């Protein structure tokens, strides 16, 4: 089980909230969509105000916004993209996808991808899949995040392929998106990614592993650095769908490490709402106390 | 007058002095006549009866600090002796005496025992060369290689200096042949002296070559410096060219530029023990065939640090190459091959035909420089060449990461490129893929790969590899493989090229080549991928490579689809978001279509049948816009004027016609073309007024890929 360290040394791991997997995913998606919508609306508002400070802007129709996509100046194109995004209609996916395929400068392409993410429609799948192979890593990363929001059919396979990407941030986005998609079929790929040090793969494993696969992850304890395995282990402990027996097995495995770091993990779990079952809290505390500080 | 009176004595001296010897005939006198027929005849009569040589088979060398002089007997394979010594230059073996130049002068030691036989004080001059037979030897000392040098020729017999002769000129390396001493000097003379008296009795003068060495090998005597010729009666003509001269290949510069023989009229410090010249040398065994000098087996050997290789004597084509574990510090061509000595004291005999190791021995002492003297090569086993051994050895040489070997690796790589067979292609792929190789060597391997005509399976196998972070797989050398696929007309490679075109791990500088190759191989099947690529990046071409690639895609679509590509190209050309630079290339692609359409209309007007006029058909018909695959039988080394003329030949008439289309008409236009890897990067036309007419014609042609890995600038003139 070779373990790469480079990616973890250079890439910041997102720290999820200690809520259930599905609630966490929904809240994150909603927050992202809300943030992007507000940002788009603000930009549109600002542009409208600066363009005609005295006059009142007439509302733009869907067809007009779609037509703006083919304007000759980038500002109008951008306005068209944002307007379609604010409208939020499923019908906006087609003209946006077509415009993306017609080719856009990098900045507009990024906005277009963000807009597709805001729309959150699975119909955006085909063009997003194509963008996971774009030459710009930032576009590939955005496309993967958008896929996690749009959840198109066949996404897991396309996203799993991105685990092989040459860019570290893209691989991390792929791992996170696989977790968001609940792509259990990608567990083998994620274990390989974990071995190769792909950032976010440990968290994804923590979210996706079934009870029968926990022991395989526990096999890394004592062989891989705990700061890499630990987040996955904590994720398993916090999951509501993980049987208590398995959680006790995890607690026991941490205790056997007998390291200060393992004690810290046990104490953190004991203090978290995830251990609200008294027996789990007691087991974690007892295990922590068995380890010298 | 009494016979004993001083006057009588003086009178006797005056009368008799001329009879005692003409001052003009003193050795090395500038007044001595040369190429005198009678003297020359007498010389060769004496040389003809000279007894055969009885050289010793010995290795004489100097160890690193603390320095010791050693002698290893090749016949008995044992170290005869070694003793402390501080020579300034390499030791020489003359007869049964080992000569060294040390701080105080020249020291001669007995070959068998190491006992000092004589010592000649001289701190001013350098030991140039020596030869001997038994305990008789002759050597030369010189203060330099210029015309102002002062030299001495010294003859020693049984440990005693028999005679010395001074000359105000640089002297070369002499030979002792029977009782004749042959001394080359002042670059053009060979003086023959009696070995007993030191009296010069004949002189040869060579007017068409430089003579720095005279030496005997078997029954023949040779002379020369950069070339090699026979010391024969024919030399009395004064022309080395009439003496069966062998001249090495001049058009190929060997790494390190070693000469046939060590320089004697040059910087003498190059003879210092630690000089790199001892590790870079050319070796040959001269023979005479049909009165002409030839290297035996028509083969030369080059030793270059840790590499030994055999070269064809007339072309310098690499016959075989061997990578050795240590630097070669001594080499001698022998009848059966090449005898080498390395810095650890290992002696090895390499087979002449294939470089296989036939024999080896350990001298037991390390060495800075080893001089090898061989009468009979060591008895060795017969070579047993297994198929593929030679190729493996050549690849091993090229693939080594020793930075000192780059010059010879380039030479060997050039030789490898000329070898046929799919296995060679496979090896070239491996070398091109080795990122640890020196840039120039890797570039040579990639260039050679691009020009390969066989090995399709290996090219396909290599193209089938894609970058994968999880499996630690790097992308293959796609650019060279794409070119190779195009050269081979490998249609099966098209799907893989599409995959690489769409792979973000593909280096940007390979994209244009992939596009061009894909267009040539995929034909209409490549249109969807090329269209997708063009649309995706025409407004987002991040760097020059991507701009070129997008431009190549536009040109490819114009070539493949003809007028069907116009709507897309016009749309992109008119798109204000198109990246600057890309729009120019799109317009050139449209110009291609325009030129094609005009040519077609012209032909229809003139009633020409496109197929009946090959020149017209090739120039502007849609077929002529198809990229011409680089299927020429020979890949040129670079874009020569002939190559450019051949490439632009089909449109030459049209370009001339352009001269008359401007007002005022022109009689001359100068084009400056920038080409890299067969891609035309830019075209400038002077005068500018002709650009719109001439540039599309030039861009319609496909330039060949050359072996040069650099961007090439060529100038081409169009005259009315």
Tag the structure with descriptive keywords.
heterodimer, A: 293 residues, mainly alpha, 17 helices, 67% helix, 0% strand, elongated, disordered N terminus, B: 720 residues, alpha+beta, four-stranded antiparallel sheet, 18 helices, 32 strands, 28% helix, 26% strand
Word description of this protein:
The complex is a heterodimer of chains A (293) and B (720). Chain A is mainly alpha-helical and 293 residues long. Chain A has helices at 6-10, 21-51, 62-68, 74-87, 93-102, 106-119, 125-131, 137-150, 155-161, 168-181, 187-195, 201-208, 214-218, 226-238, 244-257, 260-271, 278-289. The radius of gyration of chain A is 22 Å and the shape is elongated. Chain B has a 4-stranded antiparallel beta sheet with strand order 3-2-1-29, with no helix packed on it. Classes of the chains: A mainly alpha (293), B alpha+beta (720). At the A-B interface, helix 6 and helix 11 of A face helix 11 of B.
Radius of gyration of chain A: 22 Å
The first-to-last residue Cα distance of chain B is: 100 Å
> What oligomeric arrangement do these chains adopt?
heterodimer
Helix-strand topology string of chain A: HHHHHHHHHHHHHHHHH
Tell me the overall shape of chain A. elongated
In round numbers, the mean pLDDT of chain A is 85
How many strands, what sense, and barrel or not for the largest sheet of chain B?
4 strands, antiparallel
Structural class of chain B: alpha+beta
Number of helices of chain B: 18
Strand order of the largest sheet of chain B: 3-2-1-29
Helix share bin of chain B: 25-40%
Q: How many helices of chain A does DSSP assign?
A: 17
Q: What is the CA-based Rg of chain B, rounded?
A: 35 Å
User: Average pLDDT across residues of chain B?
Assistant: 88
Low-confidence stretches of chain B: 10-20, 614-633
How many β-strands of chain B, per DSSP? 32
Low-confidence stretches of chain A: 1-6, 9-21, 51-55
- Helix fraction of chain A? 55-70%
Biggest chain-to-chain interface with counts: A-B, 29 and 25 residues
Indicate the proportion of strand residues of chain B: 25-35%
């Amino acid at each position: 089980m070779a373990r790469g360290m480079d990616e973890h040394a250079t890439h910041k791991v997102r720290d999820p909230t200690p809520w259930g997997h599905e609630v966490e995913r929904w809240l994150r998606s909603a927050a992202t969509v809300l943030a992007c919508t507000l940002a788009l609306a603000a930009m549109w508002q600002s542009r409208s105000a600066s363009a005609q400070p005295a006059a009142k802007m007439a509302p733009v129709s869907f067809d007009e916004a779609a037509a703006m996509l083919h304007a000759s100046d980038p500002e109008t194109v951008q306005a068209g993209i944002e307007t379609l995004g604010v409208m939020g209609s499923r019908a906006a996916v087609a003209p946006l996808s077509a415009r993306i395929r017609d080719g856009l400068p990098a900045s507009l392409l990024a906005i277009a991808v963000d807009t597709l993410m805001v729309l959150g429609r699975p119909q955006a799948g085909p063009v997003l899949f194509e963008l996971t192979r774009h030459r710009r890593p930032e576009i590939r990363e955005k496309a993967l995040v958008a896929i996690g929001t749009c959840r198109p059919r066949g996404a897991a396979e396309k996203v799993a392929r991105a685990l092989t990407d040459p860019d570290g941030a893209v691989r991390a986005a792929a791992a996170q998106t696989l977790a968001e998609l609940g792509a259990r079929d990608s567990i083998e790929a994620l274990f390989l990614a974990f071995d190769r040090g792909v950032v976010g793969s440990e968290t994804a494993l923590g979210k996706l592993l079934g009870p029968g696969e926990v022991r395989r992850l526990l096999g890394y304890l004592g062989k891989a650095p705990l700061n890499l395995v630990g987040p996955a282990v904590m994720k398993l402990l916090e999951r509501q769908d993980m049987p208590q027996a398995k959680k006790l097995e995890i607690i026991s495995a941490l205790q056997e490490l007998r390291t200060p770091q393992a004690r810290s993990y046990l104490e953190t779990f004991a203090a978290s709402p995830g251990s609200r079952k008294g027996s789990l809290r007691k087991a974690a505390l007892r295990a922590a106390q068995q380890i010298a500080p | 007058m009494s016979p004993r009176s001083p006057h009588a004595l003086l009178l006797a001296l005056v009368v008799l002095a001329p009879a005692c010897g003409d001052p003009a005939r003193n050795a090395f006198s500038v007044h001595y006549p040369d190429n005198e027929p009678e003297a020359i005849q007498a010389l060769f009569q004496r040389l003809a009866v000279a007894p055969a040589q009885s050289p010793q088979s010995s290795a004489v060398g100097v160890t690193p600090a603390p320095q010791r002089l050693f002698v290893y007997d090749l016949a008995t394979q044992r170290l005869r002796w070694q003793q402390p010594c501080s020579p300034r230059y390499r030791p020489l073996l003359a007869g049964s005496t080992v000569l060294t130049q040390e701080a105080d002068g020249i020291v001669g030691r007995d070959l068998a025992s190491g006992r000092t036989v004589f010592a000649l004080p001289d701190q001013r001059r350098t030991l140039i060369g020596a030869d001997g037979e038994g305990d008789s030897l002759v050597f030369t000392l010189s203060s330099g290689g210029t015309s102002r040098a002062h030299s001495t020729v010294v003859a020693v017999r049984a440990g005693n200096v028999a005679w010395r002769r001074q000359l105000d000129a640089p002297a070369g390396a002499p030979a002792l042949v029977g009782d004749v001493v042959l001394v080359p000097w002042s670059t053009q003379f060979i003086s023959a002296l009696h070995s007993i008296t030191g009296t010069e009795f004949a002189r040869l003068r060579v007017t068409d070559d430089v003579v720095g060495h005279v030496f005997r090998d078997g029954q023949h005597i040779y002379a020369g410096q950069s070339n090699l010729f026979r010391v024969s009666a024919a030399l009395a003509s004064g022309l080395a060219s009439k003496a069966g001269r062998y001249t090495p290949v001049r058009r190929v510069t060997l790494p390190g530029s070693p000469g046939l023989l060590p320089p004697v009229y040059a910087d003498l410090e190059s003879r210092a023990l630690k000089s790199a010249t001892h590790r870079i040398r050319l070796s040959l065994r001269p023979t005479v065939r049909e009165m002409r000098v030839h290297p035996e087996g028509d083969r030369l050997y080059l030793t270059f640090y840790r590499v030994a290789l055999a070269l064809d004597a007339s072309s310098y084509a690499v016959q075989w190459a061997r990578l050795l574990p240590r630097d070669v510090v001594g080499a001698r061509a022998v009848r059966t091959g090449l005898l080498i000595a390395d810095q650890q004291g290992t002696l090895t005999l390499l087979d002449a035909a294939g470089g296989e190791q036939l024999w080896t021995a350990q001298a037991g002492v390390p060495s800075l420089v080893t001089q090898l003297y061989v009468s009979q090569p060591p008895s060795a086993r017969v070579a047993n060449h297994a198929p593929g051994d030679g190729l493996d050895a050549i690849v091993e040489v090229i693939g080594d990461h020793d930075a000192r070997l780059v010059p010879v690796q380039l030479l060997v790589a050039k030789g490898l490129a000329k070898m046929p067979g799919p296995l060679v292609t496979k090896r070239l792929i491996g070398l091109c893929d080795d990122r640890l190789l020196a840039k120039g060597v890797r570039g040579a391997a990639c260039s050679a790969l691009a020009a390969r005509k066989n090995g399709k399976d290996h090219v396909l196998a290599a193209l089938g590899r894609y970058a994968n972070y999880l499996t630690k797989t790097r992308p293959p050398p796609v650019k060279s493989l794409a070119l190779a696929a195009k050269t081979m007309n490998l249609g099966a490679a098209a799907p893989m090229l599409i995959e690489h075109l769409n792979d973000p791990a593909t280096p940007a500088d390979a994209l244009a080549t992939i596009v061009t190759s894909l267009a040539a191989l995929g034909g209409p099947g490549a249109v969807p991928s090329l269209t997708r690529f063009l649309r995706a990046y025409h407004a987002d071409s991040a760097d020059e490579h991507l701009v070129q690639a997008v431009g190549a895609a536009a040109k490819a679509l114009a070539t493949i689809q003809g007028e069907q590509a116009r709507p897309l190209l016009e749309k992109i050309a008119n798109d204000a978001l198109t990246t600057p630079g890309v729009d120019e290339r799109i317009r050139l692609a449209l110009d291609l279509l325009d030129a094609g359409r005009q040519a077609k209309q012209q032909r229809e007007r003139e009633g020409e049948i496109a197929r009946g006029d090959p020149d017209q058909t090739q120039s502007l018909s849609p077929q002529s816009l198809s990229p011409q695959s680089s299927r020429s039988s020979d890949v040129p080394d670079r874009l020569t004027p002939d190559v450019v003329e051949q490439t632009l030949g089909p449109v030459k008439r049209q370009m001339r016609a352009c001269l008359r289309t401007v007002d005022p008409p022109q009689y001359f236009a100068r084009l400056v073309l920038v080409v890299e890897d067969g891609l035309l990067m830019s075209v400038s036309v002077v005068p500018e007024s002709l650009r719109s007419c001439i540039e599309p014609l030039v861009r319609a042609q496909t330039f060949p890929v050359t072996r040069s890995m650099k961007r090439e600038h060529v100038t081409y003139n169009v005259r009315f």
